[in-house]
Specification:
Strand content of chain B: under 5%
Helix content of chain A: over 70%
Number of strands of chain B: 0
CATH superfamily of the largest domain in chain B: MetI-like
CATH topology of the domain at 72-217 in chain A: MetI-like fold
Number of strands of chain A: 0
CATH class of the domain at 72-217 in chain A: Mainly Alpha
Distance between the termini of chain B: 23 Å
CATH architecture of the largest domain in chain B: Orthogonal Bundle
Distance between the termini of chain A: 21 Å
Radius of gyration of chain B: 23 Å
Largest sheet of chain B: none
Helix content of chain B: over 70%
CATH architecture of the domain at 72-217 in chain A: Orthogonal Bundle
Largest interface: A-B, 63 and 61 residues
Structural class of chain B: mainly alpha
Structural class of chain A: mainly alpha
CATH superfamily of the domain at 72-217 in chain A: MetI-like
Oligomer: heterodimer
Shape of chain A: flat
Chain lengths: ~260, ~260
């Protein structure tokens, strides 16, 4: 890896070096934020681009007044249920398709039809069936996350090291034990990769569904705040949901590293 | 394409029937159930009605125009992001100053659900084409830049050293060694970015209107003409399939030396 560090404070004692390096690494973001603060109200109108201090104040306000709490809760519920469903169904389907030709023949054509379809294009259809609200958002999140999980699970289950299976067979492992003790553990790393790929799509589809078809949720709050001119609150809501997405992505990566001790 | 005689034998016909029977079954079931009036037509119009609507929308030019608007917005934006993303990605991998500046920005910016910025772009740039195109640029920049950066970092150092040793200049090194060696990764970035470009365009069109497939689709829901919604989804699936095939074909053709 050709990562060349611009500055390595190797002459400082260890804990300080770490802190100094951290600060140095994040200067660019500080530059951006300060630039934004200075530009706001001077280069561009404050209403068009509220300064970071105003956005920070609005973020605190949204929590202090409790305004954001129900929206955040409903969004988290939607993304959690949608992603959870897609993991359950996706793993089952992916592994099922690798174990049984009948299952594969039945589902393969549907998967290859919805694979190239940007799932947010289904929001109007979900709206038609389920109306405005949680069910529509959950359905869209579910559909958006399903494919990466199915494909990774299926791929992994079809490519389980044959030597592992043969060795287990040779030691007299039954079909059921083989499935639970060999196939499933061997596919877990790729299933986790599939979930990791699905998380950003979960948030994109959640916000899309909420922008178009919801009376609650972070997406709706962003839209409402924007349409009545509460711009600091609009930016604050975006910051909050981005922080949630960021935590989900990097948090999941941390968990994956802890869980996958055997790879 | 040359026809392979063996592909016409009985077993492969059975195979291809096996792989699509469930779809045929579903479509037949769709028509039968709706004809029997078991489902309220607003939720699910008859398949034949949807097909009629599709033909009508295409022949009246409405669908073609909407598809043109959507694809134009998505691909102009994607082209902008491709240029910016590849340039910045390569600079990040080759230049310590750029790496220092852009790495934390990419780390923070990549996971942001860009779609939440749609109301912001409506505020900044209005609801016209320009606003949608800039939104696509901003949304698709990240995967392109990250893949270009990572691919450039992984270019075999021996290749670069050998080229240098033979006296290759900076410019030739970039065009003849680094870009070709990184091109599979760059192409992957574009493949990831294409559906994101479409997602952003559809959602923006649904929220803000201004024509395009997203607007046409949501108009079907709001105007109680659900056949129109289904017809547009058919069109989107077709476009998605064609784009996917095109990208794969382009990949094998352009990168066949890898």
């Amino acid at each position: 890896m050709a990562t060349h560090d611009l500055w390595t404070p190797d002459r400082l004692p260890d804990p300080f070096a770490g802190v100094a390096k951290f600060l140095f690494d994040w200067i660019p973001l500080l530059v951006l934020v300060v630039g934004w603060e200075v530009a706001s109200g001077r280069a561009v109108s404050e209403s068009v681009l509220p300064p970071p201090t105003a956005v920070a104040a609005a973020t605190v306000d949204l929590f202090a007044t409790g305004e954001v709490i129900p929206h955040l809760a409903v969004s988290l519920l939607r993304v959690g249920v949608g992603l959870g469903l897609s993991i359950a169904v996706g793993v089952l389907l992916g592994i099922g398709m690798s174990q049984s030709d009948a299952v594969e023949d039945f589902f393969d054509v549907f998967l290859s039809l919805i694979y190239p379809l940007p799932k947010t294009a289904l929001v109007p259809l979900a709206l038609l069936w389920l109306g405005i609200g949680t069910k529509t958002a959950v359905l869209i999140v579910f559909l958006a996350c399903l494919l990466p999980i199915v494909m990774n699970a299926n791929n992994a289950a079809e490519n389980v090291d044959q030597n592992l299976i043969r060795s287990a067979r040779m030691m007299g492992t039954s079909d059921r034990r083989l499935f639970w003790k060999v196939v499933i553990p061997a596919t877990i790393p790729e299933i986790l990769t599939g979930i990791r790929q699905a998380i950003p799509f979960a948030f994109i589809s959640l916000i899309s569904a909420e922008l178009i078809a919801s009376e609650q949720g972070m997406g709706r709050l962003i839209r409402d705040a924007g349409s009545i001119g509460r711009y600091p609150a609009m930016f604050a809501t975006i910051v909050i949901i981005s922080a949630v997405a960021y935590t989900a992505v990097y948090g999941f990566e941390q968990i994956r590293e802890r869980v996958l001790v055997w790879t | 394409m040359d026809v392979d005689v063996r592909s016409l034998d009985a077993s492969s016909v059975v195979d291809s029937l096996k792989s699509i029977y469930s779809l045929v079954l579903l479509l037949v079931l769709w028509e039968v159930v709706t004809r029997m009036g078991l489902i309220y037509p607003y939720f699910l119009p008859q398949l034949s009605v949807v097909i009629d609507e599709f033909v009508l929308l295409v022949s009246s030019g409405q669908m073609i125009h909407a598809a043109y608007l959507t694809l134009m917005r998505a691909f102009v934006g994607l082209a902008g992001a491709a240029v910016a993303g590849v340039v910045i990605g390569i600079l990040c991998a080759r230049n310590a100053l750029f790496e220092w500046f852009f790495d934390p920005i990419i780390k923070i910016g990549y996971p942001v659900p860009v779609i939440s910025l749609v109301p912001v772009f409506m505020l900044w740039f209005g609801i016209g084409d320009v606003s949608k195109i800039i939104m696509v640029v901003v949304g698709t920049f990240w995967p392109v830049a990250v893949n270009a950066r990572d691919a450039t970092r992984q270019v075999d150092r021996n290749l670069i050293r050998s080229a240098r040793m033979m006296g290759t200049g900076d410019r030739r090194l970039l065009w003849r060694v680094i870009l070709p060696a990184a091109s599979p990764g760059i192409f992957t970035g574009l493949q990831i970015a294409t559906p994101i470009a479409l997602i952003i365009t559809f959602v923006f069109e649904m929220v803000a209107g201004g024509g395009g497939l997203g607007a046409l689709e949501i108009a079907g829901v709001r105007g109680f003409n659900s056949a129109q919604t289904y017809a547009v989804i058919f069109a989107i699936i077709a476009i998605g399939l064609v784009l996917d095939r095109l990208l794969r074909a382009a990949r094998t053709r352009l990168l066949d030396w890898t």
